Amino acid sequence: MSNHLLSLLIWLPMAGAVPVLIAGARGSASRWIALAVAIATFAASLLLLPAYHTDGAVMQLVESTPWIASLHVNYALGVDGISVALILLTSFVGVLVIVGAWDVIKDNKPHQYMAAMLVLEGLLIGVFCATDALLFYVFFEAMLIPMFILIGIWGGPRRVYATLKFFIYTFLGSIFMLIGLIYLYHKAGTFDMATLAALPLTMKEQSWLFFAFLIAFAIKIPMVPVHTWLPDAHVEAPTGGSVVLAAVMLKVGGYGFLRFSLPIVPDASAHYAWLVIVLSLIPVVYIGYVALVQEDMKKLVAYSSIAHMGFVTLGIFIAFMLVRDLGNVDAANLGVQGAMVQMMSHGFVSGAMFSCIGVMYDRLHTRQIKDYGGLVNVMPWFAFFMVFFAMANCGLPGTSGFVGEFMVILASFSANPWIALIAAFTLIIGAAYTLWLVKRVVWGEVTNDKVAAMKDINGREAFVLTAFAVVVLAIGVWPQPLVHLMGGSINHLVQQLAISKI
């Protein structure tokens, strides 16, 4: 089983989409099949934990089969600690979005919705497993298709505009990455990512490749100024689409930096690290103020995601400053570890926040903050979860939101106290827009008859929110298992940052 576990994780959900479609829209068979497939995928992903040896630095559970033999392209898979963590995140969220959409999508082509979710899950796992650059690119591009369908069919009134903007932005960025990969193929004669990482490149070559990768992954995260597609996509996407988009798809950008920019073009990444650091700090302040004035709850959380993902790129690229300029490998390790913990934490917290917004929208069919108020009086259990996830979004100690941000700030302080000061400002501005949201939606008196008639969360919704809450609390209280899982891989990656190719 372990020899083909990665292929199972990729193709099980995609193959499972077929019987879901065959079951059709009648009855609940398609939903039960989709849930069974999602649970089976999550159970299979848990097998990665005993199969993966955390003290190893090389790819494990490797699979390799000739795919396009004439071009030396292989169907090559493998995982390290970073990949394992992100696969677990993907499969965990996959179960919750199926459960979350159980009654919401039941009258609107539920079999097609569930099938699209399963295909998207398989493609995302493929991105985190691929060790051949062309295979990575195929999964990287293909995942746009089910998300395009999810937003375009089950989205809001402006779904066509949002889907086109989402697709054009992300597809355009991918073209630059493809050009860079083709150039590397002509230099190395292969798309094997380990071979590409060892390829000697001049500073000029590295610089062009760095910006090709930067454009592709900056759009996916997204970073300022190529972030404007995200709020529109979130606002128009169905709840499940928003959860997957925020919890998993944004992480592909950060993962791409770790897999391509750092090992393949380390000198250019070190030279231009200041640029990425600046682009990472801008969302901390600017996007925070933009979030403060939003009246749509989804748009507010979407802008919050941009700000929090700025910590990911800051933690990754501050490592270059720490290693190359200061020789502080321990602090660099801390920064990259913080970036990865932040990626995982944001996946759970943002997924939970969008799930909470979905609960409210399913009852009142509006996302405008002004239409709510006093929910604690009529939905006390929902209010408990909403406040808890809001605190995690603020970075409250004891929740996962605090751990990653604190680690990145601590590493940044070792590099430059001013960078740390600006980064820490997000704790203030983040608390401002999040608590401002909670104050207007949860607290106060009920002034709307429609709000007064809202019912508290049901068992299905309680299951989804409880699952998110348990993980957010567990990482916040005891982050060591997650840090240990990724530690060997991160340490190996940081050690490589000190090695110049020129």
UniProtKB/TrEMBL annotation:
Q: Locate the NADH:quinone oxidoreductase/Mrp antiporter transmembrane domain: which residues?
A: 130-427
Q: Where is the NADH:ubiquinone oxidoreductase chain 4 N-terminal domain?
A: 63-125
Instruction: Give the way it sits in the membrane.
Output: Multi-pass membrane protein
* Name the record gives this protein: NADH-quinone oxidoreductase subunit M
> Family per UniProt?
Belongs to the complex I subunit 4 family.
Q: Where in the cell is it found?
A: Endomembrane system; Membrane
Query: Which species is listed as the source?
Result: Oleiagrimonas soli
Q: Does the keyword Cell membrane apply?
A: no
